[in-house]
Amino acid sequence: MMRRTDKKHLVIPDTQVRPGVPSDHFKALGNYIVEKRPDVVVHIGDHWDMPSLSSYAEKDSTFSSTNYQHDIDAGNEALALMLKPIEAHNKKHRSPLDIRMVFLVGNHEDRITRLINSAHYARFRGVITQRDFELSSWEVHPFLKIVPIDGIHYSHYFRSKGSQRALGGTAQYKLTKLKFSFVQGHVQEMDVALDYLANKKVIRGLQAGTFYQHEESYLAQQSYWRGVHMLHEVSAGNYSHSEISLAFLRRRYL
User: What does pTM read for this prediction?
Assistant: First the structure.
């Protein structure tokens, strides 16, 4: 039997979990993972929405430990829903799923770092920490670290050259600037691109969209895609791309 040289990557876009939003799609995703058995799962970040920290640009904001804990619990519980079918499968079968689980910290999770690094809020150092996120099953990478896996470069988003700002534009534009295969989150609209380098190597770009059921008021005038992505035959940055909509996952896997 020929040994596989290609891989299968499951990409989870921004999930933005907070108290009070639906989360049953995480259970559906866990069931899907058990059935499809990807080699790698990459969560692109912004899982914890962290609205309790969204107003800390204002120096007179009052920190609520209760609201903060509710934010943490909501995200932890949603991830647990996803992992439960995988853990149940592994307990039942002699050959457990061997999946590399990768989590990329997004700008919403990084609100904790920005807060405690501020001199005005130094008193919260040691009180709140990214260790509050339940990510013991995941390989965790810091905000904006670029993580190459099988030739695809993953990051929550990519920065403009010589700037701390996110590289804007379409996936095709980003591909011409980055000159390597990439997958990013942060942008609600899904966008895909393909290009060929001078050596005929194929490079691909993917802006992953979103994976949540609720509406965001600040996106009222924008369209955005909801679902996850399966990248098949991943090798040296090339792959075939399948879109799996959130509606399909809930209909088929709940």
Answer: 0.93
**H-helix segments, the chain:** 24-36, 65-92, 111-116, 171-178, 246-253
- Tokens at residue 61, please? 């904001």
- Summarised one tens digit per residue, pLDDT across range 135-169 is 999 999 999 999 999 999 999 999 988 787 899 99
Domain count for the chain: 1
Beta bridge partners of residue 227, listed in sequence order? 245
- Does some domain include residue 2? no
Q: Quick check: is 13 in a domain?
A: yes
Q: Does residue 151 contact residue 162 with C-beta atoms inside 8 Å? A: no
Residue 220 is predicted with a pLDDT of: 56
Asked whether residue 100 is assigned to any structural domain, the reply reads yes
Asked whether residue 1 is domain-assigned, the answer is no
CATH of the domain at 134: 3.60.21
Task: With a cut of 50, say whether residue 1 has pLDDT above it.
Answer: no
* Residue 61 pLDDT > 80: no
